[in-house]
Amino acid sequence: MIRSSKRLLPFILLLTALPGFAQKHKRPAASAPAVPSLPIKLTVDATQAPQKILHATEEISVTPGQVTLVYPKWIPGEHGPTGPITDFTGLEFFAGGKRLPWHRDLVEMYAFHLDVPQGVTTLEAKFDLVMPAPPEGFSSGASATTQLLLLSWNQVVLYWQGAKSDDVTVQAGVKFPAGWHYGTALQIDNESSGQISFKPLSLTMLVDSPALSGAHFRRIPLSPQGPIQHYIDIAADSEAALAMPQQTIDEYKNLVAETGALFGARHYLHYDFLVTLSDHTAHFGLEHHQSSDDRVAERTMIDDDMRWLAGGLLPHEMTHSWNGKYRRPAGLATPNYQDPMKGDLLWVYEGLTDYLGYILAARSGLWNKQEFLDEAAEAAAALDHTPGRSWRPLQDTADAAQLLYGAPDEFESWRRSVDYYAEGFLIWLEADTVIREQTHGQKSLNDFCHLFHGGQNTPPEVVPYTFEELVKGLNQVTPYDWTKFFRDRLDSYGPGAPLGGIINGGWKVVYDDQPSEYTKAMEKTRNQVDARFSIGLALDDKGEIRDVIMDSPSWKAGIAPGSTLLAVNGRKYTPDILREALREGKTSKTPLELLVSNGDFYKIHSLDYHGAEKYAHLVRDESKPDVLGEILKPMAK
Ligand SMILES: [Zn+2]
Hints:
The protein has about 625 residues and is an alpha+beta fold.
């Protein structure tokens, strides 16, 4: 998964024969009651999606007596208890046409208890999902507009408490608004009068296969000749937004080829990127085995700046099909959606994916080399200006993932955020350079990916791993003290970010007064103003101060995160006025005066700062070979 707003800023092959989803290694046993063998019959009426409500009916087999049904809580790829239980409404149960009362568990809010009368073997449930959500959050954030809908099945299903999702078969169907088209990794059983029925499959695979539908829809084939088909399915709020240029389409075709070259095998039967283009849905990416839910702003594919800033998203989410879905940390390979997840290996799940996603974006041409360097410089510089690393080791950012995804921007540099993404990028870059150094260029992290994530082509399956198995895999590529390598970086309270990969790669982080193209594009498209590396302020074009870096000039002058910058040296704040004041301050002896409102109070803060604007870049260290350049070269023929 990836948050786009972050960064200061998951044949004819009868699917019932695809419990293939079963894992090669056993997952922890759930204390499970016997699961009735009859499939759950789930029908979703999405025709009122523009009015922000979905209706569903479910037939579920039961045995008479006390029955507990549960609503999915821990959502794969979101690494937290993010199922939208507050939006699960209109719940009614019927047995033989008679209404049955239910009550919610007093401790587990996602569980519903019923007393099923003798002789009853099937319940009918009716419920709604209301979708008033603001455009924040992940799949529980806004998912419908008047023009489109991303349907996440976990939001419209109940299942037996204690059941393993692999063991639950669901026969699902949906009806979208008239005239809307749709895309999904699900296999269609039949379709008539707008009512779509999918082939029966496990609850695991249903939840793993969202459906994207919309009035403005485009399906782009990426691998028409290959035995494994890849598509980009796009739903947008306008017809104009669908016009992805041919060059970009060709780069996504390259991405398919590059993932094949990197991993050597695929663990899906076909793959669909489900791309939502809207300014009124949540913006993020969520991985699945055979698809990804990729939501970006409406004009992303037709605006050059927005397109390149989003260029890492699809490579990241697709990489998860191997790293995160197929190979999954043991603590995240839970048997159902109620058992808590453990995020201690998210620096592999997300960190390695960040690294591979970035280099795949470059190898496929979605980013040129400079664009990759700008992204890397941003990650390195931001982490190097994170004072919170003095109290919170990187490991704890992973352990506390379900807390940090929802944490506010204020005090982010002290609290730390989900740093296992960007810092994972740096650490895996360094691991790549270590392998190359140890083997005199004969091997690289590419070989590890082939070994650890590749093998034979398979349908979706989960192969869990532990830290020890990860280390073993790396040692098979090249013997090294990998345990020490990772533990040093995961458990340290060091002042600076791990920059060894950049240094070994033949580059260094420098700061000057010229913003990179990345910084310019971020400021332009996301209304941000980046003064973190100069006076320690991250703010927006309206003056809202999102964070103040502790120990920076702004912090020392008493400015609080969450306050508002109103004026600079006596003149009303605009981003240009602030930048000019920073430039002029270089040759001035007078302090920089910032008028800031904090709640109802106004105060002028004086900063004795004369260091001009400061922005991060990567520049070549000519004393070393350009290993980074080697890493970015395309692998596919
Ligand atoms: Zn991710």
